[in-house]
Amino acid sequence: MVAVLDSSQEDELQQAQSALLHLVHNGDLERIVHLARLMGAAADSMSDEMVGRMAEIATGGLDLVDRVERADLTRALPAISALVHNGDLDRIVHLARLVGAASDSMSDEMVGRLAEIATGGLDLLDRVERADLTKALPAISALVHNGDLDRIVQIARTLGAMGDSMSDEMVTRLATLAADAMCLLDRAVRTGVMDRVLRVVEQMDAQHILTDFLSCLAGATEEAAKEPAPKGGLFGLLDIMKKPETQETIQFLMLVGKHFRSCRLKH
Predict the structure, then answer these.
(1) H or E stretch at 260
(2) What residues make up the domain containing 261?
(3) Would you state the torsion angle of the CA atoms of residues 243, 247, 252, 255, taken in this order, to the nearest 10 degrees?
């Protein structure tokens, strides 16, 4: 008995035949058959234990995909791709292995020491923060840049070496000398000598006597280096005495001596 097909079923049958012919023509039908045979052979060769393991693996994979989807880790894929492309992911892995190896090689004593060091460092930072020493950082940077910090360290070392080399007798002598100096300064202040000395110094500074004396001393030193050596003898002395400058100098010294003699006679 021949079944009668309507027009729609005939169209579907024709489409199926054309698709089947296309698969046969391209060789896809043979591949499907081989794939079906391969899957059948794999299913026949798999034991119940292997099927259970495959089911567990598939379940774990699906659970991992579900966690990734819920955690929205897809946003991290570009960053992970960049890490892989730049080789940073390998460095992170090596660093993690290094940290793990260091953690495995550390004993309880080493862990305790590191904990003490970390505690001391945090305590030091807390003290620096509370003491507001951050304001001193620019000054310390300037000392380091100018080399003054090295000089301060050298001075401290020199003072330390001096302190180490000094005996008890030397310390006693220095203490006695300092005490005598303080007593002398106290006497000078109590007797008014210091006030008189300060007044004289102020007068000398106001009249530029000390400045003129130092300038004259420097000029004489430079000029003496350029002057020829004296001839010596009486005639050489007479030549020097003939100069007006020599006579003016002798006259000035005589006037100084005269005024000093008058001051002494008054006292």
Answers:
(1) helix 244-266
(2) 229-267
(3) 180
13 with 5: CB under 8 angstroms?
yes
Is residue 255, in this structure, part of any structural domain at all?
Answer: yes
pLDDT per position as a tens digit, 122-173: 888 788 778 777 777 788 888 888 888 888 888 888 888 887 887 888 888 8
CA distance 117 to 245: 79
In the block, residue with structure tokens 């892989």: 84
Measured in residues, the chain has a length of 267
Residue 11, domain member (yes or no): no
User: Domains in the chain: how many in total?
Assistant: 2
Residue 246 domain-assigned?
yes
Strand, coil or helix: what is 2?
coil
d(CA 202, CA 204): 5
Retrieve residue 139's tokens.
């000054």
The pTM of the full predicted model, rounded to 2 decimals, is: 0.27
User: Are 234 and 242 a contacting pair, CB within 8 Å?
Assistant: no
Calpha distance 258→267 (Å, rounded): 15
111 near 117, Cβ under 8 Å? no
Residue 29 lies inside a defined structural domain of this protein: no
